[in-house]
Amino acid sequence: MTSRVVVTGLGSICGLGTGIADFWAALCKGQTAIRQLTGFDDVKIKTGARVEKFQPEQHFPKDLLPLLDRFSQFAVLATQEAVDDAGLTGCKDVLKDAAAIIGTGCGGKQTDEETYRKLYKENRSRVHPLTIPKGMTSAAASNVSKQVGIKGPVFSVSSACASGAHAVIQGRMMIQSGLVDVAIVGGTDAPFTYGLLKAWDSLRVVSDDICRPFSKDRSGLVLGEGAGILVLESDLHAIQRGARIYAELAGCGMSSDAGHITRPDVGGIVRAINCAIEDAELELKSVNYINAHGTGTIANDIAETEALHRVFGRHVNQLAVSSTKSMHGHALGASSALELIAAVLTVYNNIIPPTANFTSAGDGCDLDYVPNSARNEQVDVALSNAFAFGGLNAVVALKSFV
Amino acid sequence: MLQDTVIKEIATYINSKPDDISLEMRLDDIGIDSLGAITILFELEDKLNIDIPTESLDSLKIVNDVVEQLEQLLGEKVPA
Asked: A201-259 pLDDT, tens per residue?
């Protein structure tokens, strides 16, 4: 018999604040972290949800910083909070056998870009010797492992905007298989670099204003940054040590569109959601809440809404569906982890965070998107959707733990 | 002085004061492993605009080895 997997610790850093308390409070108030973007004069993107006034030297010793790209810094901070929240700080015997799977879409782009700038623009002939270990995609996972003392399976996964969700799913499978009792999982990204912003400019999917998922006047996604980390455990392990259990990670579904590189495919989304529902052995009518992928692009919001219609039929009108990207922005590889944390807290607290910045429903967007104000409502079952560029879909099903 | 430059760079790397570092100290003993050594050499290469060959890394055991290596490269070594 495979283990049930539960969530026992949470950690986050994003534009809404450092730490879960600030994150959840802002979500419940419908506050957005989206601000005018400064420091990038020659870039069309005008807004972003950045971690403002972040000072790494306040969080890390001076000798460690040369090894920590910003995406690693976020991951380590969120992990330390999650491990502490789970009551595992200092539990060396538990942590040494744990896994850490950290998703990232971009990796250490700040390190890479700084290096290339020096080489190509300043014509420097040599680069810093720590460029490789600092910038490698797996650097965040390695630093999480090192700082927290995790000595089991550790690696990164990458699937663009679904990276965090795929990392969560990988950790759950490891626990279910009996490979580990505890897995530190989630995602991290720090995409506010000149080169990346220029690349997003060219893709023409970023709003020049604010993120309004599912609204008629939506104009695209708004980039964010940060990290979201969860501590997963087998239910037996959590119960034996008397841990507080937020929710059961009851099911997961994955699919690939094998189609267009950026346009979402309704069929692919439907298959991922159905897989998660089947895996969690849920009845459709038991689902209360969907934390949507909800990017605020024209294509995503229509496709996601249509997919929910196809999966849920009449029950779709009983669902509350919200996009918290309207508040923390699209933090790429971290986004799906931050959104899963929001869904976990929704199930735990029975408060549904809203879709902020909502005006009026867009064409093809006809669901209850929980506009602008959080709602107190019993939520026993929730889904968290993540659909990445490249057609990589990941859906996680949560149940309240009883 | 080259010696002062080297000691200052090492002190910065190990978060110490130049006065606390002597030429006879072993790099291992003051917390400079191979990754630390190449980081310090990189900073010195940058400051002095020289290229330190990788083969010389193995011969750097004490602080003074770094100074001597740089003296050779800079052609500053004074004959005994």
From this structure: 999 999 989 999 999 999 999 999 999 999 999 999 999 999 999 999 999 999 999 99
Cβ neighbourhood burial of A58 (10 Å; 0-12, 13-18, 19+): exposed
Query: What's A212's DSSP letter?
Result: -
| Alpha helix segments (H runs only) across A149-297 | 163-176, 194-203, 235-240, 266-279
Give residue-wise pLDDT tens across range A150-182: 999 999 999 999 999 999 999 999 999 999 999
B27 alpha carbon, distance to own chain's centre: 9
Task: Supply the ipTM of this predicted assembly.
Answer: 0.82
CA distance, residue B77 to nearest chain A CA (Å) = 26
Mutate: best of A122, A126, A132, A134, partner B, most B CBs <10 A: A126
Which residues have CB under 8 Å from A168's CB, separation 6+? A101, A103, A185, A186, A230, A232, A249, A252, A336, A337, A340, A396
Local confidence band at B76 (pLDDT 50, 70, 90 cut-offs): low
Active site residue A91: no
| Percent of chain A as helix, strand, coil, to the nearest 5 | 40, 20, 40
SS3 A228: strand
Query: Which residues pair with residue A188 across a beta bridge?
Result: A227
- Residue A161 falls in the annotated catalytic set: yes
